[in-house]
From TrEMBL, chain B:
Range of residues in the leader sequence: 1-23
Protein known as: Extracellular solute-binding protein
Gene3D superfamilies the UniProt entry points to: Periplasmic binding protein-like II
InterPro entries given in the database record: Bact_solute-bd_prot1
Originating organism: Nonomuraea phyllanthi
Keyword entries, A-Z: Signal
Length: 310, 463
C-alpha cells in the first residue's frame, strides 16, 4: 500500500513562496507595463473605433476608421514606401554588420578601439542623423556625391529625386549598425575554434569556413537581428521625418519618404485625428505580426540551433 | 495550481485599469463663454500665470514681459519656453491643467478654436477695453473665427525682394527686373543670373521660394487659395495653376528644383557665409526679418531691396505672425487677458523698441525696426529708426511699405490639413511627380474634404 502524503495547500508551498517573491520583485515592471503599455494599447483599440481630437470626448463611429484606411490612397503609398525601405535596408544592414563583425573578429591589434569606433555612430541622436543625411547626401555639395565624383560619377539628387530618396535613407541607416556588429561579434566569439581547426586541416578556405561553419553557427543571432531589424524598419520614423518633414524641411516634403509611422504621426499630432491614427496603428501592428510570422516560418529551416530547435 | 496566479493577475490588471481610468480626459462639452465682467481693467492679480510657447529671449520680449508683470499688479509670470508644443498643450487642456495663456502661430488659432481648446476673447477685449483698431486688420482677421476674436495678434511677417546688387549689375539687370512686376522679366533674369559650370549649380539666379510662397505668387496673379469665409478651397483655379507653373518654371530654367534646393540647403543661411555674402544667389522674395539677420552678419554684402510687386506694379505681402490665446480651463483668464493686452499695447512696443535701439547703438549698429502687428505701434517705431546707410535703409523702407499692402488667409478649422494639401501639391510638382494642374486638382479635393469635415464638426459643436 503506497504511503499517503499530506499535501500542503499551494499557497503554503515553497513553490508559491518563490512565485510570490518573483512577482513582488518584478511588480514595478508589471505595474509600469500595465499603465504605460497595456492600457494605452487597449485604449487605442477603443479609440480606433471613435472620432477623437484629444480635446472633445471620443464619439463612437464603429468601423468607419478602418473603412477609411482602405479608401485612403496615402495609406497604400505609406505602406509601399515602408515595405520597400524594409526590403532594401534589412538585408543591407545584416550584410554590412556581418562583414564588419567578421573583420573585427579577425583583428588582432587595437580591437577595443575598433569596436568602440564602429559602435560610436550608434550614439548619434536620430534627429541629428536626419540632419546629417541632408548634408552628406546633398546633391550639389554633399560628401557622398563628392566621393562619387572622384570616380567620375555624377551623383544623383539623393534628397529630392523620389527615385533616390529611399536608397539614401537605406545607406544612412548603416550609420547605426554598431549595435548589430556588437551582437554578431559576441556570437562569433562563441563559435568553437576546433571546428575551424578541423576545417583547416581538411583544406577549407576562408569562404568555405565562413559559409559552412561561421554563418550556420551564428544563424540564431542573424535570425534574431533579421526579425528585430525588420520590425524597426517597419516602424521607421525619426530620421526620415527630420530630413523630409520636420526640422530639416518645414515646408518641403517628399512622398517617397512618407513612411507609415510618419503618416500615422501626421494624422495624430498634426491633424488631431486620434481615432483614425489609432486605426492606422492597429493596422501596422497586424502587418508587423503577419510579416514576423511569415519570416519565422520561412527562415526557420535556415537557422541552426545547437542541440536542435529551441 | 493556476488559480492563485490567475487571481493575482486579474487583481493586478483590475488595479491598473482602475488607476489608469482616472486619467481619462476631461475635455469635451461646449466651451464656456466668459463674460466681460470677468475682465476688469482695474483688477490686480496675485499668484502666478504660466505662459506656454514664449521665451523672452531678447529685449523685445523681455521688456514687454516686465511691463506685463507690472500690469498684473503682483502676480508672477512663469514662461514655458520654446515653440508651442501642440501635443503638450492639447494634452494639458484635455487633462484639465492647461497653462493660463499660450503663444501660438496665428494660423493655428482656427484649429484650436474649432476644437474648443481655447476660449473666445470677445469678453476679454470688451472687459479690458482693448482697442482692436490698433491691430493690423489682416492679423486680426487671422484670429477671428465664427464672428469672435480668439487671440490677440502680435508681430507681422511680410515678404520683400532681396537681391545681390553686384550679380544684378554683372548681368545688366536692376531690382525692377526681379521684383515680380513683370514675370517674363523674372524668368529672363533667372536665366541670366544662374551660373552652373559643367552642370554643377554654383549660383542660383532666382529662388521663387516654393513651396512656402505659393499664396504670394497666387495672390499676385489675382487668386486667393481660400475663400474669404474660410469654407471653400480655391486651389485649382486657373490663376493658382498659372502662378505655380510660373514659379516652378523659374527652377526649371536653372536646371531644376533639385539642384536649387541642394545649393539652398547647403548655405550658411544665418551666418557670414550666407548666399548673398558669398554671391551664390541672385534674388529671392524673403521675409523681412532676414534684413536684420543680413545686416547683423554681413553688413557689407552688396544687397538691394524692393517690395514684392504684382504684375500691376503694386506692393504685396502675405501676412503671418504670432498671437496670444487663452486655453479652455485656464485658471486665471483675467490675468491672462491683461498679460496679452499689455504685451501688445503701443507703449509696450515703444518701450521694447527703445531697448532694442539702445542695444543697437551700443553695438554701433542701426535700428532697423520691428513689425509688431499693431499699426499704431509700427507708426511710432518707424519714427525711431536709425540709418544704416542707403542699402539697409532701402530694405527697411521696403518692408514698412510691404506691411501696408498685406493679405492673409482666413482662419478656418482645418488649417493644418489645408496647408498640407497645397504644400504637398507643390512638392509633388517640384519633385517631378505631378503636373501643376493635376497636383492642384488633387489638393483641391483633399483640402475641400478636410474643410467640409472640419466645418461640419464646428457647426455640430456650436449648434
Amino acid at each position: 500500500m503506497p504511503a499517503t502524503h499530506s499535501k500542503a495547500p499551494f499557497w503554503r508551498s515553497m513553490r508559491w513562496r518563490d512565485t510570490r517573491a518573483a512577482l513582488l520583485f518584478i511588480s514595478p515592471w508589471i505595474i509600469g507595463f500595465l499603465i504605460f503599455t497595456a492600457w494605452p494599447v487597449i485604449n487605442s483599440a477603443y479609440l480606433s473605433l471613435t472620432d477623437y481630437d484629444v480635446i472633445n470626448d471620443p464619439s463612437f463611429v464603429g468601423f468607419d476608421n478602418y473603412v477609411q484606411l482602405f479608401q485612403d490612397p496615402k495609406v497604400g503609398l505609406a505602406l509601399r514606401n515602408t515595405f520597400l525601405f524594409t526590403v532594401m535596408s534589412v538585408p543591407t544592414q545584416l550584410v554590412v554588420s556581418l562583414a564588419l563583425a567578421l573583420l573585427l573578429n579577425s583583428a588582432t591589434k587595437a580591437t577595443g578601439f575598433f569596436r568602440t569606433a564602429f559602435f560610436l555612430p550608434k550614439m548619434t541622436p536620430p534627429v541629428a542623423i536626419g540632419i546629417l543625411l541632408l548634408m552628406l547626401f546633398n546633391g550639389q555639395n554633399g560628401l557622398i556625391n563628392a566621393f562619387l565624383g572622384v570616380f567620375g560619377i555624377d551623383g544623383p539628387a539623393w534628397t529630392t529625386d523620389p527615385a533616390w530618396v529611399k536608397p539614401g535613407l537605406v545607406l544612412m541607416s548603416l550609420w547605426t549598425v554598431g549595435s548589430s556588429i556588437v551582437i554578431i561579434l559576441a556570437a562569433l566569439r562563441g563559435v568553437p575554434q576546433e571546428l575551424y581547426d578541423s576545417a583547416l586541416v581538411d583544406g577549407a578556405g576562408w569562404w568555405r569556413r565562413t559559409f559552412r561553419i561561421t554563418v550556420p553557427l551564428i544563424s540564431p543571432t542573424l535570425f534574431f537581428l533579421f526579425i528585430v531589424d525588420s520590425i524597426n524598419a517597419l516602424q521607421s520614423f525619426t530620421e526620415a521625418y527630420t530630413a523630409f518633414f520636420g526640422s530639416g524641411n518645414t515646408t518641403y516634403s517628399n512622398d517617397a519618404a512618407l513612411f507609415y509611422a510618419i503618416y500615422l504621426f501626421q494624422q495624430a499630432f498634426e491633424f488631431l485625428h486620434m481615432g483614425y491614427a489609432s486605426a492606422l496603428a492597429w493596422l501596422l501592428f497586424i502587418v508587423i505580426m503577419a510579416i514576423t510570422g511569415v519570416q519565422m516560418l520561412v527562415t526557420r529551416r535556415f537557422v541552426h540551433y545547437e542541440g536542435g530547435q529551441p | 495550481m493556476r488559480t492563485p496566479l490567475v487571481r493575482w493577475s486579474v487583481l493586478s490588471v483590475s488595479l491598473a485599469l482602475a488607476l489608469t481610468s482616472c486619467a481619462k480626459g476631461t475635455g469635451g462639452g461646449a466651451t464656456a463663454t466668459p463674460s466681460a465682467g470677468q475682465f476688469n481693467p482695474s483688477a490686480t492679480f496675485q499668484g502666478s500665470i504660466s505662459v506656454m510657447g514664449f521665451g523672452a529671449t531678447d529685449e523685445i520680449g523681455s521688456t514687454r514681459v516686465d511691463l506685463a508683470k507690472k500690469a498684473l499688479g503682483g502676480a508672477d509670470v512663469k514662461l514655458i519656453e520654446g515653440d508651442l508644443d501642440i501635443q503638450q498643450f492639447l494634452s494639458s487642456v484635455a487633462a484639465g491643467d492647461p497653462p493660463d495663456i499660450i503663444y501660438a502661430n496665428r494660423d493655428q488659432i482656427g484649429t484650436f478654436a474649432s476644437r474648443g481648446a481655447i476660449i473666445p476673447l470677445t469678453a476679454c477685449v470688451e472687459g479690458e477695453q482693448i482697442d482692436t483698431s490698433m491691430y493690423n486688420k489682416n492679423a486680426l482677421a487671422q484670429v477671428t473665427f465664427g464672428d469672435e476674436i480668439w487671440a490677440i495678434p502680435e508681430f507681422n511677417q511680410v515678404q520683400i525682394i532681396m537681391a545681390n546688387g553686384d550679380l544684378l549689375k554683372q548681368a545688366g539687370l536692376t531690382i525692377e527686373d526681379v521684383n515680380g512686376s513683370d514675370w517674363s522679366k523674372v524668368t529672363a533674369a533667372a536665366k541670366k543670373l544662374v551660373k552652373a559650370p559643367g552642370g554643377k549649380l554654383k549660383v542660383i539666379g532666382y529662388d521663387s521660394k516654393l513651396p512656402e510662397f505659393l499664396p504670394l505668387w497666387a495672390k499676385a496673379n489675382g487668386a486667393d487659395l481660400l475663400s474669404a469665409d474660410g469654407k471653400t478651397a480655391q486651389l485649382n483655379s486657373p490663376q493658382v495653376v498659372k502662378a505655380l507653373e510660373f514659379a516652378v518654371g523659374i527652377y526649371d530654367e536653372q536646371g531644376g528644383f533639385a539642384k536649387v534646393k541642394a545649393v539652398r540647403d547647403s548655405a550658411d543661411f544665418f551666418g557670414k557665409g550666407n548666399q548673398f555674402a558669398k554671391n551664390e544667389l541672385g534674388a529671392m522674395p524673403m521675409e523681412q526679418w532676414y534684413v536684420n539677420v543680413l545686416n547683423d552678419v554681413s553688413p557689407k554684402a552688396p544687397l538691394v531691396f524692393d517690395t514684392f510687386r504684382t504684375p500691376q506694379g503694386e506692393p504685396l505681402a502675405y501676412s503671418s505672425g504670432s498671437s496670444w490665446a487663452i486655453p479652455k480651463g485656464a485658471k486665471n483668464p483675467g490675468a491672462a487677458c491683461r498679460f496679452a493686452k499689455t504685451m501688445t499695447l503701443v507703449d509696450s512696443w515703444k518701450a521694447a523698441a527703445q531697448a532694442r535701439l539702445d542695444k543697437r547703438k551700443e553695438e554701433g549698429k542701426p535700428f532697423t525696426g520691428v513689425l509688431t502687428g499693431n499699426v499704431k505701434a509700427d507708426a511710432e517705431i518707424e519714427k525711431m529708426l536709425t540709418s544704416g546707410g542707403a542699402t539697409w535703409d532701402a530694405g527697411v523702407k521696403a518692408f514698412y511699405e510691404a506691411n501696408e499692402h498685406t493679405f492673409s488667409l482666413p482662419a478656418n478649422p482645418a488649417d493644418s490639413e489645408f496647408k498640407k494639401a497645397w504644400q504637398d501639391a507643390v512638392n509633388r510638382v517640384l519633385n517631378g511627380q505631378d503636373e501643376p494642374h493635376a497636383a492642384l486638382d488633387k489638393a483641391q479635393e483633399d483640402a475641400q474634404a478636410a474643410l467640409d469635415k472640419a466645418w461640419a464638426g464646428w457647426t455640430k459643436r456650436t449648434n
